[in-house]
Amino acid sequence: MNPNSDTSIEDTTLKITVDGQSKCFEFGDLKKFHQGDSWFGCAVGFRVMQIAARELSNTTLWSREDLYIVSGHPGEGVKDAIELITSTVSSNHFRLLDNMPSQGCSKKMKFEWWISDGKQTLHIKMNNNVVPEQFFTKLDQLSNDDALTDDERGSKHKEFDKLKTDLSNDVWDRPLNANFMFDFLSSPLKAGELPDE
After folding, report:
1. How far apart, in whole angstroms, are the C-alpha atoms of residue 65 and residue 79?
2. Dihedral, CA atoms, 147, 148, 150, 153, nearest 10 degrees?
3. pLDDT for the residue numbered 133
4. How far, in Å, are 8, 134, 148 from residue 81 at the CA level?
5. Roughly how many angstroms between the first and final C-alpha of the chain, as a whole number?
6. What is the structure's pLDDT at 89?
7. Fewest CB atoms within 10 A around its CB: which of 21, 29, 124, 143?
8. Residue 150: which pLDDT band, with cuts at 50, 70 and 90?
9. pLDDT score for 197
10. Interatomic CA distance for residues 98 and 80, integer angstroms
11. 3-class SS at 180?
12. Is residue 7 predicted with pLDDT exceeding 50?
C-alpha cells in the first residue's frame, strides 16, 4: 500500500480527539506540513501514530489532552508527524531520549517511542528487519562527505533519496504489526519522565 498511489483513504488516515472534537488526519496532510525531504521519517512517524490511535482508543477515541511522548528518533520527519497529530512538540510534552542529537538522523538514534495518555504508556519499537544496515552506511557516508567531489556527493544523495523512498513505500506496504512491536508499561510516564531502558 503506497500512499502515493491509488489506495483506500482509510489506509492512510487516523483520528484523534482535539478540543473535544474528532479530527481526522490523512498522510497527505503530513506531506503538506513537512517542509523538508525526510519522507521515510514522515512515513515511520505517521505509522507510529496510527498504532497509538488504535491502541490508545479503547471505549473512546484517544485525545491530545494529557499526551506526553518520548522519542528515540530525532529526525524531522518523525517529529513533524508527532507534532501534526498530537501537538506535543510545540506544547513541550515531547522529549528525546538522553544522548540523542536534537535533530537529524544518526546511528545513535532508536526507532522507539513511548506515548502516555496519563493513564497508560504505550511503548512502540520498530522491528529489527525494517531498516537495513545499508541505511546507516549511506547516512554515515553523507555525514562525512568532505572528501567527496560535488559529483560524488550528488550521486550519493540520489542513492540515499532512492533508498528512503523505497523504505517509505515498504513501511506503507506492510501491515502495522509487521513494522512494529508494542507493549504497555506497568505505569504511565509523567511529563518530563524518561522510561527505564
Report:
1. 18
2. -130
3. 87
4. 20, 24, 33
5. 33
6. 97
7. 21
8. confident
9. 64
10. 20
11. strand
12. no
Domains of the chain (ranges; CATH) run 9-126+167-178 (3.30.1330)
Any idea which of 3-7, 52-56, 65-69 has the lowest mean pLDDT? 3-7
**CA distances (Å), 54 to each of 61, 90, 147, in order?**
9, 23, 47
Q: Percentage of the chain surpassing pLDDT 70? A: 89
Residue positions counted in the chain: 197
What would the mean pLDDT of 76-99 be, rounded to a whole number?
96
Average pLDDT, the chain: 88
Residue 48 host element (H or E): helix 39-56
Q: Are 114 and 121 in contact (CB under 8 A)?
A: yes
User: Which amino acid appears at position 26 of this protein?
Assistant: E
Classified as helix, coil or strand, 82 is: helix
Task: Round to whole Å and give the CA distance between 41 and 27.
Answer: 12
CA distance 12 to 5: 11
User: Cβ-count burial of 78 within 10 angstroms (0-12 exposed, 13-18 middle, 19+ buried)?
Assistant: buried
d(CA 141, CA 126): 23
117 vs 95: CA distance, rounded Å: 15
